[in-house]
User: Fold SET domain-containing protein from Edaphochlamys debaryana.
Amino acid sequence: MAKAKPGAKGAGGAPAAGGSGSGVPKGATAPADSFRSPVGCTGAQRGETEFAAWCAEEKVRFPSSRLDVLPDTGRALVASRNIKMGEAVVEVPDDAVLMADNCEIHTILEEYGMTKPADEEILEVQGLIIAVMYEKNLGSKSRWGPYLDLLPDDMTHMPLYWTRADFRELRGTAAYDKMLGRVQHPADAPTQVPMLWAEVIAPFIEEHPDLGLPGGERGYELYRWATCAVASYSFILGDDKYQAMVPVWDLLNHITGKVNVRLFHCPKRHVLQMIATRDIASGEELVNNYGELSNSELLRGYGFVEASNAHNHAQIPVSFVISAARDLLAEEAGGAGASRPAKRQRASASDGAAGNGAIEGAEEEGEEEDPVQRLVKERRRLAQRLGLFPQHHVFKVFAGRPPPAALTALIFTLLASPQQAADLAIQGRRASVAAARSVEASATGGRLKRSGKARRAARSEEEEEADDEAVAEAASKAAVEAASKVALAAAAAALGDGAAGRAAAVRMCRVYDALAERMLRRYGTSLQDDQALLPSYASLPPRRRAALLARLPEKEALAALRAALSGRPMAEQAAVLRASLASGPAAPGGKGAVASSKGAGAGAGEGKGGKGGEAEEKGKGKASGGKAGKGGKGKAGVADVAQAQGQDPFSFGFSL
Assistant:
């Protein structure tokens, strides 16, 4: 996942005029047109001369740029001359990257299942962390010593190092939810550091005293540092998702809206490159894009925030949507199940709400399930078949935009009448099957036309399997999209003119209002409290400033959602709902409808990063496989189709 900070990356960007109130007020920081993240900006680092010599030896090239320290972003890579669009500004040989698969102890890590392919993704991450620990501990004896020395020794800008009191300032935010593993599941690898140390890393060190890795408190601190280094500096390379530390690539900062390079792999030359996406003037900072990340996500993953961030949003878990709809249905049923929703509200207010794994069956063991709960379970399963669940089971809500189409369609589906639900199930199934079959038929015809039987027979079994997998993936995606369109259309039809349409709008708006109110209750402070803090922003401790800029935009997005769908004329509220449904697609990456014999709706796994340009999610482009092999020149791999579409299958750090 392309994360934000090369060596405690700084945030940047001047606060935009107007916009939401989440920007720092003029006069709260130094000049009114300047902003420096209160945490995460690295200054000059020791070892820069040694690093430059190491780059020359390893043929890591950045001839048109130089290291500098800037007032807004801290350490940065700056153009040393005018750079033309399309010019390669950085080149890193494939074998200069550091991975679990090519470090000095790769055979031991392989024996422990910590290299590709591991049984669990988190073990692959632990493999790279151990590799970084080992190479760092070797110091000057390590091939990557000068590179690792350039990474900051002080990682205390990362929330993993925050005190309990500081961390509580993030309560209610997406960062808090993800790091604790409450509401959003699973928890981050950084959050699991104590457990992983005790169960994986410490036993590994004890079994291999010959590696020289320290144990005890010193070993734990080295592990925590390496975890932060991998979280905020590593990249995911290629379709096979090899996690690697890529020198110089990780020196570029992220500034929302100012990206001027993209990531690229040249398979012919076996080099990873950064390509200028526009002309860059001498003295201008080279800026990478870590994805369309909110301040909360930037702080969690990279340890910095921005003054004005167009990607700020609130994240609403699916479990909260289902709970709010269940409460309304219980109320309409005359109080059935009302005691449990009250309990859930108290739990969610204290951050104890059930996460994705607990959406179904919230009843206590041995307690008979009531009719409302059974109904909600059925509607939940229907919504999942219709592809209405977003990636990671959270909806992103932005101030000034209609709510996500899939969120509105999900609320409609949860509240649907028995007849509406039956129609949705039948029509969704038909649409998904038809869409999947169309893709499969098109692919089969295209293959025969393109190659003929003789050439097709000459293709290897691996090539055939790869083609089949690609077709199955495309068919699955088409099936989910077709089913979700059925749900969107049905929700739009339900909001038609007349008494029935008004009644449907009222019910949906009531769920939205309860949902926003419940989300806002989860923060440790109110929106008004945070707005009152802004004038004294400069006097707050750095971590409190960072937490304020992480949570305030989320509250503003939730308050805007509530204002748009409550306390306004019903015609205006219905118009917002229709605008939401018209804003599709429904739920990219969601799990969805069963379509063909091969199935449809690939599970939404942990996403990695975003495009090299301004993109929703990094690393979505397809890449041909390959390791940067064990000490040799492997290929990180980039498929032609992904390059043609401008997608870069690279990302930075842990999944977001």
Q: What stands out?
A: The CA atoms of residues 64 and 420 lie 62 Å apart.
